[in-house]
Amino acid sequence: MGAEHFASHEIHMTVPFHDLDPLQIVWHGNYLKYFDRARFAIFNHCGVDLHEYSKTSGFLFPVTRTSTKHIRPLRYRDDFIVRATVREAHIRIVLDFEIRLAQCGTVTTRGRGEQVAVKYPGDELMLQIPADIENALTVPDAGDHDRA
Q1: Residues 74-85: tens digit of each pLDDT
Q2: How far, in Å, CA of 100 to CA of 66, rounded?
Q3: Mean pLDDT value across residues 101-124
Q4: What are phi and psi for residue 6, nearest 5 degrees?
């Protein structure tokens, strides 16, 4: 049996004016919004609609921890790429994020988010991620870590 890798996916975005702070750089809280857009994009890329999944399965996946490392600020109209990479999908879901400028590839931000599975109703914390979600986020070893 070959090694397993986890999925990665990228989205392209442009900084809108309303995301800026008084210093004319992206307000720090908006980076979590960018990470969240990439989070939903990677799930969709892997064939998982979290909203529909929660309605049919009763599982919710709340974010329990985040971290952000700001390296270089994003500015108005910067075109950028957010890459989400699954690092773990068994006990919890761990996603690493990287934001880089589209034109030159300069890394501006790195981050991480962690999610757990909770059974609703009752808010029962599950001690592992449902197998179908784990399988969707896992890619058989094919030399390329991106899912086609």
Answers
A1: 999 999 999 999
A2: 19
A3: 96
A4: -105, 155
